[in-house]
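Predict fold of N-acetyltransferase; 151 aa.
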Amino acid sequence: MEFVKPTLKDIAEMIALVEPEVKKGVILPRSQEEMANTIRSYYVAKVEGRIVGFCALHIYSPSLAEVRSLIVKEEYRSNGIGKGLVELLLEEGKRLGIEEVLVLTYQERFFKALGFSVIEKEEIPNPKIWTDCIKCKHFPKCNEIALLKRI
Ligand SMILES: CC(C)(COP(=O)(O)OP(=O)(O)OC[C@H]1O[C@@H](n2cnc3c(N)ncnc32)[C@H](O)[C@@H]1OP(=O)(O)O)[C@@H](O)C(=O)NCCC(=O)NCCS
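Predicted 3D structure, encoded as tokens:
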């Protein structure tokens, strides 16, 4: 298993991998164009050349970023791949000068184990609400939990 930066050629496979979770409303849909625009924000996990997981770090400001679209293929879960992906993004964020990393998720225990703490929804930065949340089928009645980590 290896963690690598994806290329534009990986986008179709990434969209296919995330589709079941998009259908469940767990992860927001992203178009091919949006993923191409932001391809540099992703890391993928590969096993024998096939993508088994990925995650992105979206930067909002000189100090704040967000963990987005974390997914590990069902049969590869509980092997540390999710943790490895998030840790790589946190390292990258730190290297770039990010101070705080936000996540909106149903996976509270997973992110708490990685050092994130629950915050109030009112503390979520506005750009997230207007650019992302309005695209979500659960908006505005969102049950996701917001967590933040200082890095
Ligand atoms: C959340 C998800 C990415 C975790 O990936 P994973 O590769 O199975 O996670 P890991 O094996 O790295 O687990 C890391 C730690 O979190 C724990 N953990 C993993 N999934 C968990 C869960 N659903 N609930 C509670 N704890 C969990 C593991 O026990 C492990 O703890 P340990 O290090 O003490 O052993 C995966 O379950 C997934 O793709 N879920 C569907 C999509 C989703 O919900 N994404 C989050 C969107 S923000």
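The beta strands are 2-4, 42-47, 50-59, 64-72, 100-105, 117-119, 145-150.
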